[in-house]
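Supplementary Text 2. Reproducibility record for the structural model of the 493-residue chain.

All settings were left at their defaults, and a single model was retained for analysis rather than an ensemble. We include the record here because the model underlies the residue-level annotations in Supplementary Table 4.
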Amino acid sequence: MAEITDLGVAEIRDGFRGGEFSAREVADAYNAAIADADALNCFIVTTPEKAVEAAEEADRALASGDAAPLSGVPLGIKDLFCTNGVQSTAASHILEGFVPPYESTVSGKLLAAGAGMLGKLNMDQFAMGSSNETSHFGNVISPWRRNDGGNAPLSPGGSSGGTSSAIAAHIVPAATGTDTGGSIRQPAAFTGICGMKPTYGRCSRFGMVAFASSLDQAGPMARSVKDCAILLEAMAGYDAKDSTSLNEPVPNWEGALNSDLKGKKIGIPKEYRVDDMPEDIDALWKQGVDWLRDAGAEIVDVSLPHTKYALPAYYIIAPAEASANLARYDGVRYGLRELPEGANLQEMYAATRAAGFGDEVKRRIMIGTYVLSAGFYDAYYTQAAKVRTLIARDFDAAWESCDYLLTPTAPSAAFGLGDLSDDPLAMYLNDVFTVPSSLAGLPAIAVPGGLDHHGLPLGLQVIGKALDEQGVMNAGLALEERAGFTARAEKWW
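Retained model, structure tokens:
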């Protein structure tokens, strides 16, 4: 039998139920793997005792014939989710020491389904970043290295970089991620794993630290499409505590997985062919077209004419919402409080926010405050909101001629930590292929497709119609089966 830490969610679930190993053995194996991987800095807090507690409960439940759907499966939880009794910081100094007295709906659903919690995963501060270099708790390191003999530490992507690195390093079988403009899909592509952003509203945002409320969406990250389907079933569903939660039934996505795409049309958007696209990525995109054609799909060209305005619109809307959401962190109600001697209330607010927020968070708060300010609101925010509508209409028009879209996930493979940190605009361009579907609230999946000439993973993205997670995952499965991606990082940590 393979090492337990090499097994995915479905294999752990089925092996546990089949008596091949106990849940306690699984929890112990992952706790040991995490303890041996400090060099990756994937976790802000580890909770081995909670993983063991859930495992022992799973073993008792199986013995009594009452195992839950995810019994025996330990998971990592991105630190953007509030977890009852466990520090939740969104990787920010301003929330350091904050221990929520409640559970987020998504993590609560996973725990109620029998999953154990291995710990809270590192991330970009308040989910603002594409490289996991803005965390107050230090950079996350990708387990991957270039094959040119260099040992430069690489970005695992962001903001779900702790999640992607931990899954790729096999120190968790799967974990939660969140996606505002690509924070599930881009890190999945950088580390050679799968990541699914469902339709906006599929998963409750209750208990998820807010960045940009009209864009934030939770989703699963794992090493296969099937594992993503299993986790999404457990995470999704209507929640009265979130006014944007969709009151829609949760399908049996795992049971309906089918990679036969006969009768389906795949659109190739011409606007996604950006200038200076690396040859490796262009070649993989063409290979992806051939794979989907082999699965029975018809390939058609489509146009999304407002794509070039997506990033500018996103970087107005998201900071505007962030500036409003982060106003609540003032030193009174949560975490950090800086109170200089003799300071009044206003001075305490200023000192707390100056000390608590990182540079990237401050940058986005200032951009957001500016675009919402009197005299500029209509010129920036209102215009961006109109562009968002046009982008959504582009997708609606595309669905008249195709069922899904196939695109690259990111415009490059993983880059070195520090390579883009002095150039925010270059960093923002990492989300060029993922932001449009986020603005439109559509489901999309990232699937590993191959390696570039440096031996680093590259991903393909499938975008689908609202609420068609099944179709998106089916197309993702067709890519996964044909790509046969089995590469993994050699252990150096």
